[in-house]
């Protein structure tokens, strides 16, 4: 059970509150604008130190306050409970503490509370830039492969140095060599991690997708970021002149992408908006199932914003069943509680929280 206790202060219109969520299903209901999404946003802040609603921090902090604070008690599979707190100020500074000690790496925070968000913007995973799909892929690899983060950091450092030299204009080829050696080594290691992860993810994704929508001709493939027929070192050498003209590195693991095609065409161009949302749901839920198969130290927590408005009743029930069978902690917001009332088994722990004008109150059990 990840979040045993959640305390929120200074987040948007929410009044200060302390909640004790269910280890399984948590339904957050109330009128539009009442603060339901803000509660999900607070959990997102706790796990990733950033909002999913705004790139700027100032709108997240309650009017008249200088900072917002979210505190949580997170239970690990081992039975250990970690106390985690994050404070973010209007100046964009943040302080993170875990068990009373300062946390300097956001990776520690992400590892302690793995989060997956499903909301009205989720379909952008398909239609957005490759960076979004690459982040999706790397999220999964990060949570199952302990050597991913060091390799990713090496790639970023060597790439930054190579690009900095390229921007100087005409330079000697030898000046790039030390950084290219590191770029190639880190890039090939990341590529191996990503390929191994995707090989495990694909059958899980296909099984889950089949339970949501019949799209047998949908294919999921991986582009590593450079010509698959050539080693990266050769590609960098061949593209040196062009890289110098552009001032950045064109090929490498930093250009990787996931490609979804339906009957030979880009899925985003032929699938309906509803089908796209179901594909994205399947992609995200598949990562939760794969984490559980790997025996990760923590299960994934799902934040599902405004589920009923996104899906019809049939698909809503199918999605809820998948989340229920995953046996993880889920927070779902909705306007009308009745739309989710019959989606759960009678023995599944369900807690309900009513939100009105920023006030959050736990209400009677859904089965009473």
From TrEMBL:
The keyword Cytoplasm applies. ATP binds at residues 30-37. Its main location: cytoplasm. PROSITE patterns: RECF_1, RECF_2. It holds the Pfam family SMC_N. NCBIfam families: recf. Belongs to the RecF family. This is DNA replication and repair protein RecF. The gene is recF.
